[in-house]
Amino acid sequence: MLWQQTYDPLGSAWLSTLVAAVPVVVLLGLIASGKIKAHVAALIALAVAIAIATVIVGMPVQTALAATGLGAAYGAMPISWIVLNTIFLYQLTKEHGSFDKMKDSIGALSGDKRIQLVLIAFALGAFALGAFFEGTSGFGTPVAITGALLIGLGFSPLQASGLSLIANTAPVAFGAMGTPILALSGVTGFDPLLLSKMVGRQLPIFSVIVPFWLIAAYDGRRGLKETWPTLLVAGFSFAIPQFLMSNYHGPTLVDVVAGAMCILCVALFVRFTHKNLRPETQDPRPETRESAIRPWMPWIILCVVVFICGLPTVKAWLNGIYAPRFPMPGLDMIVERVPPVVALPSAEGAVFTFNILSASGTAIFVSAIIGGFMMGYKPKQLVQVYGRTLLITWRSLLTIIAMLALGYLTRYSGLDAILGLAFAQTGWLFPLFGTLLGWLGVALTGSDTASNVLFGSLQKITAQQLGLSPVLMAAANSSGGVMGKMIDAQSIVVASTATKWYGEEGKILRFVFFHSIALAILVGVVVMLQAYVPPFTLMVPK
Question: What pLDDT, on the 0 to 100 scale, is given for residue 64?
Answer without folding.
Answer: 96
